[in-house]
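Why do we care about 3D structure at all? Because function follows from shape, and shape follows, mostly, from sequence. That is the central idea of this module. The next example makes it concrete: a single protein chain, its amino acid sequence, and then its structure expressed as tokens.
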Amino acid sequence: MTATRNHLRTALELAQAGVPVLPLRAGKVPFGNCRACAKDARTGRAACGGRPNMKDAGPCQCPDPCHAWAAATAEPSVIASPAWASAWREAVTVAYHPGGAGLTVVDLDDTAAVAWARETLPATRTVPTTRGEHWIYRGAMRSVNAVRDGVDLKSTMAYARWLGPGAGTMTSLPEVVRALAVKEPSAVRQAPCAVTVPALAGGGECRHRSPSYLERGIAMAEQRITDARSAIHTAVYRTFLAVLSTHGRCGCLTEAHIARLFTAAQAKGESPRHCTDAWTNARAKLGL
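And the structure:
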């Protein structure tokens, strides 16, 4: 009972800070799908959207903590509900969804990986693990395993064990970490859709090509999506519309910019298809 109370207390404290949490059972794995989803899985359909046990499953609406990382929630009423009580009794530790909290965890699995990080990555908050360290940055991105020996990236559509608050000041997600996710050829297509925009009439220089202007606009759009608390799909669509209305006709937007917007949206529970639909509809609205 003491362990159960400790896990539940930790989960509620994290939720109060806006960090979505979930219980992990023996083997450091999430609980299986609830009976309703397991039953629907025979027909290939899930009761709460998405496909059971698939990484593209949306946020789970079931009362039980199923659908792996998609079960993560920051709602205290859900975490402390009777439906989750049995899971907490069996749980061996607490996990959290980094992307849902707007974070990225660089999981360094051994001393060699830690040494590489200290030489390569900007300093940030670090948390000791059994064999290495977690380096935590502020900002969400696509999760990728084995980006190099002993290094995994955990953010959207992934979970990480809660091992304590760590030490050091958390810093913004650097481009050197984002670049790790696109190192392999198969990872280049970060955004489900690409944007083709007409060139400026007369070939004039685009006033938006100032790196600081464009970067500030994309960062504000990411934050707007991250801060949304309800009507997520509408918030995503309106944000895409605002970005395209400013930058959609001048050729400023790159695949990397679009990927950042899609990543922020997926961290809030939007599926890749919903992101693509919102982007397509925003382009159509503006006649792009």
